[in-house]
């Protein structure tokens, strides 16, 4: 008898949430880290943080960008979701109140942060790369 995992509606819901979060995190993280998609790159992001008097702007820029980019990779693969969501959520909560202060800007960062916090509580579900590779 073959032992196949039984996926639930919850697993599919978590997969959809992870994929959307992965898209947003990878996009914005790669803008900050590498300057992709017309982003500022690490130097530009660090300069922007410095202009807002953020302490240790170069280190802060790297940590924030890495939390987003690598958090996105973990969300995409579905491994280490809880652990990856913690620094990403922290980054978005801080960003919501320090940087995203214009009309309607805070809402976007807060939504992502809250969804990441939900994944800290629930985990990423059983539809992930580890389960896929185990089936082979």
Give the SSE map.
Elements: H1 9-34, H2 41-51, H3 57-77, H4 81-98, H5 105-122, H6 129-134
Main attributes of the structure:
0% strand; elongated; mainly alpha; 6 helices
Outline:
This protein is mainly α and 136 residues long.
Strand portion: under 5%
Individual helix count: 6
The mean pLDDT is: 94
Shape: elongated
Structural class of the secondary structure composition? mainly alpha
Measured as a percent range, the helix fraction is over 70%
Poorly predicted residue ranges: none
User: Measured on Cα atoms, how large is the radius of gyration?
Assistant: 16 Å
Write up this protein:
The structure is a single chain. This protein is mostly helical. The protein has a domain at 13-32 and 65-134. Helix content is 74%, strand content 0%. It has six helices and no strands. It has helices at residues 9-34, 41-51, 57-77, 81-98, 105-122, 129-134. The two termini are 15 Å apart. The model has no long low-confidence stretch (mean pLDDT 94).
